[in-house]
Every structure is written in structure tokens, then in C-alpha cells.
């Protein structure tokens, strides 16, 4: 499954989806990633100030990778999700 992510909130939602699909709690994911549960909660909520390294630790724990691509044309509704 691929997901397009254009905001911290969307990224957090995708991380949460994959975590739940594995049947893991935030604490389970935090332990596997070497982070605190509070950090997992903040990232999943899309709160600002998350370190990129922490996000990559979560992705690695979930066996996910990030691919970057040029932005596609989007509708005004997509732009509203960013703000």
C-alpha cells in the first residue's frame, strides 16, 4: 500500500494506520523504535517539532521507507489539509 503525504498530520495518520494494522500499541512501537510513547503520540497527531530522525526510527520499526516525488497537481481541498 502506498500513501501520499503532504503534511505532518497526514504522515502521523499513515504511521498510525500501519501501527494498528500490526496490532501494536503506541508503547509497542515506541519500544521497537527506541523512543518514548509520548513521541509516538505527538508524531501520530501531527504535532510540530518532531525530529526527522525520530520519524525515520518509527518508519524503520514498521519496516517502511519513504519515497520522495515531485508534487502532483492537487485540488483546493488537498491544500486545505496542509494548513
Please outline what is shown here.
With 83 residues, the chain is mainly α. It has helices at 8-21, 26-33, 37-45, 52-61, 76-82. The protein contains five helices and no strands.
Average of the residue pLDDT scores: 90
Q: What's the total count of β strands?
A: 0
Categorize the overall geometry. Answer: globular
CATH level 3 topology of the domain at 8-65? 434 Repressor (Amino-terminal Domain)
- The run of helices and strands is HHHHH
CATH class term of the domain at 8-65 = Mainly Alpha
The stretches of 5 or more residues where confidence is low (pLDDT under 50) are none
- Whole-number radius of gyration? 13 Å
Question: Which CATH architecture of the domain at 8-65?
Answer: Orthogonal Bundle
- Beta content comes to under 5%
Main sheet overview:
none
Oligomer: single chain
Please count the helical segments.
5
CATH superfamily of the domain at 8-65: lambda repressor-like DNA-binding domains
Helix content: 55-70%
Rounded to the nearest angstrom, the distance between the terminal CA atoms is 25 Å
Assign the structural class, choosing from mainly alpha, mainly beta, alpha/beta, alpha+beta, or little secondary structure.
mainly alpha
Amino acid at each position: 500500500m502506498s500513501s501520499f503525504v503532504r503534511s505532518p498530520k497526514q504522515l502521523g495518520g499513515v504511521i498510525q494506520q500501519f501501527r494498528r494494522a500490526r496490532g501494536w500499541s503506541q508503547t509497542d512501537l515506541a519500544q521497537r523504535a527506541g523512543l518514548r510513547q509520548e513521541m509516538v503520540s505527538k508524531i501520530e497527531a501531527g504535532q510540530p517539532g518532531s525530529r526527522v530522525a525520530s520519524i525515520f526510527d518509527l518508519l524503520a520499526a514498521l519496516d517502511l521507507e519513504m519515497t520522495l516525488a515531485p508534487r502532483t497537481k492537487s485540488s483546493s481541498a488537498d491544500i486545505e489539509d496542509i494548513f
